[in-house]
Amino acid sequence: MNDMMKTLVRTGPGTATGNLLRRYWIPVLLSSEIAQADGPQVRVQILSEKLLAFRDSEGRPGLISEFCSHRGASLYFGRNEDNGIRCSYHGLKFDILGQCVDVPQAPQVCERMSITGYPCIERAGIVWAYMGPKDKQPQPPGVEWANLPDSHVFVSKRTQECNYLQAMEGGIDTSHVSFVHKYEVDNDPFHQGTKANDYIKKDGNVTFEIEKHDGGLTLFGRRMGEPDSYYWRVTQWIFPWYNLIPPFGDHALGGHVWVPIDDHNCWAWSINFRPDQPLSEEERHHLEEGKGVHCEYEPGTNVPGGSFRPKANKDNDYLIDRQAQKERRAFSGVFGFAAQDASLQESMGPIQNHEVEKLLPSDRAIVMARRMLFEATVGLEQGQEPPATASTAQRVRAAGVLLPREQKPQEWARDHLVSGKDQPVFSL
Fold first, then answer.
1. Rounded Cα gap, residues 84 and 62, in angstroms
2. Helix or strand or coil: residue 282?
3. pLDDT, tens digit (0-9, with 9 covering 90-100), for 297-329
């Protein structure tokens, strides 16, 4: 593996890419996992750090080191009471920022007994944490779905058992939709009855145009549309780990975030949202059932602090159905967008062997994203500020649109998919 890829896949404390990712607000867990003030704390691992999340007596979320500074006992077994976690071993107490507020045996040493703690905010039913230098805390996330009313958004998460980078690159790679997801678009309620399905299935030879901007990359994937038009799927990769998925007709928009748990596992967050109206009861019902980009869970795992492991996973070969594959009901024999992606991305191993890959022209966006991440990582080590920390840089939207063959999609996108200074985004 070359030096660039070795750097990008390592995100633990003190690593170059880990330092970069800690400069952004990080989705940590669902707000519902710590729903109750003074309720049970839950273990969380992010960027290879073992942490504890809880809600204090005033309802504020906190994220601190799992371990007490005294003798290293886990605060998971502590008491959440009176605005702090008290260690059950010797009674030391820590607030939501990890500050030690009580040492029963020696009150005078409180300050030096503090542990790591990270500031938190809540958006879209998610607790987000900032894990970087205190004086570099950025603006809250500017992605559209994180700034809508709860009624407009549905969020889920699942464990993916591979490095975040190869999972995220699946979101950047829109050409795979014509293959692994080819038949799923007929089965999924968010894609049925749209002309987009026909364009995707008929034309697997996607032509890409890519535009780099301050917040990441805009990917214009061109397929044959009507006799006088092209069908353009406009996907957004937003630095450092978001992507936005083009809708199929008048359906809820979608997106993902890939957050490293450690170097071999990541959280795959999935989002559907409507910018201008609440999700319908029918839409929310389908999403809660795990349809679309979401999934069903292995029983007992979708609980506070749980693994949120998909029901279709590598231990059961993702419930592959060879007969369905033969009958062209599932291209790979695996059903569900999430399971289809995970089956292939996890099959590469915990960390893909990038030395043996042979990239194609359709992988240009992946190459560009890797380069942007690496340049930002190197730049940070040289004292340069990371890109896209301002919330305005993240205010873009994905789209699927038919355009006359002579029209440039970049011109259309500039008029429709980039926000104004004080606006969330323009309408499609």
1. 9
2. helix
3. 999 999 999 999 999 999 999 999 999 999 988
